[in-house]
């Protein structure tokens, strides 16, 4: 069965969203109830060339036959980008989503503390004017991350909301080449 273009659109939205205007980092507390909470240790990424992969794991589109949704599960997109030392010390939400300039996004929440990632964004596709709410939850360390991204988009074919869930992962794969470093 032919894969539908709505999946491609959803994955492009996933890859394109992330240009945040309100980037914040929350400190997570630890300790006992008798002692004041101490901030969790900040973990930063190593600068260099990173590769990210996103795999479609759930698709709920009103009116879409279940077998068509099943045929689209497992689709993967892969991307690479160069992270500068400045970006590595304070990554933004677009590091996890790869902004291609196709959406306007506002970061509602973005927290990276103690190896945990928690983000929420509201995005509008520039071409279709479709609204999307996205959450990202996962784990990270200096050279890798894993996360689950959930996107809910209004205006699905047949009415209602389309929900897409993708598992994402990324890893540092080496130093940036001169051309990629100059592009940042």
Summarize the structure.
The protein has helices at residues 5-16, 66-72, 85-89, 94-97, 178-183, and strands spanning 29-30, 38-39, 48-60, 76-83, 103-113, 116-125, 131-141, 144-154, 161-174. 28% of the residues are buried.
Can you describe what's shown?
- The chain is of the alpha+beta class.
- The chain has one domain (40-183): Porin, CATH 2.40.160.
- The chain is 18% helix and 45% strand.
- It has five helices and nine strands; from the N terminus they run αβββαβααβββββα.
- A hairpin with a 2-residue loop joins β5 (103-113) and β6 (116-125).
- The longest helix has 12 residues, at 5-16.
- The relative contact order is 0.26.
- Mean pLDDT is 75; it is low at 1-40.
Mean pLDDT: 75
> What is the total tally of β strands?
9
List low-pLDDT spans: 1-40
**Helix content range of the residues, please?**
10-25%
